[in-house]
């Protein structure tokens, strides 16, 4: 399988429509790939809180429409990063969208762990409650977003639902780049999955994003990593490695779920 991470530059000078046009063009150019991934909240800007209300849309809105058409034109599975979704009741969510080669929406995930503590996402958005996996012809894909990387229990939940490859769109701050690089490798290694983590670059809302989109294999080896500029990283992914590594080093089999409880004594 061939996978590409399109590390978009998301700057304050761009409008959502300009970003959609640029992303559509880049996705359409990925003919020959099997899977393409975009960053978190690249249309609205993950740190541009003031514009979220204006740029919020439904999962059948303009971004979904443009990304569906781009996936269909390129003949790829497309993880379109995430959008500011406005639900029918008015609640905003940080929602990831996954389209198949025909452009059909096959999965959507509302971010469970909202970043910001007492500001931004934590106060302005609702939190998701569902673990989401999607079967594909090359394996089961699990969905997570950015700050979710800091919560290993979500990733254990994803592999319990069969995930063999986990996709993480992000707008991770450059100031904590070392954390990003450590956590992406750790989540892949501990869950024995391929992890494709696509981060935005550029500056908006006063925050410089870290870039360094990365593909990691189930052994924790980095297959490809971007720098800090807008670029596309393409890697080969042998999904057979998941079963081989889990068999060679069967650590998941040795999990003890009830440590410290009466059931585990």
TrEMBL record:
One of its GO terms (molecular function) is hydrolase activity. SUPFAM superfamilies: Carbon-nitrogen hydrolase. Keywords: Hydrolase. This is Carbon-nitrogen family hydrolase. It comes from Streptomyces koelreuteriae. It comes from the Bacteria. InterPro entries: C-N_Hydrolase, C-N_Hydrolase_sf, UPF0012_CS. Belongs to the carbon-nitrogen hydrolase superfamily. NIT1/NIT2 family. Residues 1-239 form the CN hydrolase domain.
């Amino acid at each position: 399988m061939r996978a590409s991470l399109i590390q978009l530059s998301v700057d304050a000078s761009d409008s959502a429509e300009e970003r959609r046009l640029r992303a559509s063009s880049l996705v359409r150019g990925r003919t020959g790939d099997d899977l393409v991934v975009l960053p978190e909240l690249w249309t609205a800007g993950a740190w541009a809180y003031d514009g979220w209300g204006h740029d919020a849309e439904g999962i059948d809105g303009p971004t979904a429409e443009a990304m569906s058409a781009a996936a269909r034109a390129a003949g790829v599975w497309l993880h379109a990063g995430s959008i500011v979704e406005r639900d029918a009741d008015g609640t905003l969510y940080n929602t990831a969208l996954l389209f198949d080669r025909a452009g059909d929406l096959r999965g959507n995930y509302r971010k469970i762990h909202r970043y910001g503590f007492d500001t931004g996402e934590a106060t302005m958005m609702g939190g998701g409650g569902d673990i989401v996996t999607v079967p594909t012809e090359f394996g089961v894909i699990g969905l997570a977003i950015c700050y979710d990387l800091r919560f290993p229990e979500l990733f254990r939940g994803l592999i319990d639902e069969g995930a063999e490859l986990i996709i993480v769109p992000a707008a991770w701050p450059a100031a904590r780049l070392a954390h990003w690089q450590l956590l992406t490798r750790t989540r892949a290694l501990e869950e024995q999955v391929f992890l494709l983590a696509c981060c935005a670059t550029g500056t908006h809302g006063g925050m410089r994003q870290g870039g360094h989109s990365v593909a990691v294999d189930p052994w924790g080896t980095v297959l490809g990593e971007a720098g800090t500029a807008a670029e596309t990283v393409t890697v080969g992914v042998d999904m057979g490695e998941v079963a081989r590594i889990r068999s060679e080093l069967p650590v998941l089999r040795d999990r003890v779920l009830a440590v410290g409880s009466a059931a585990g004594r």
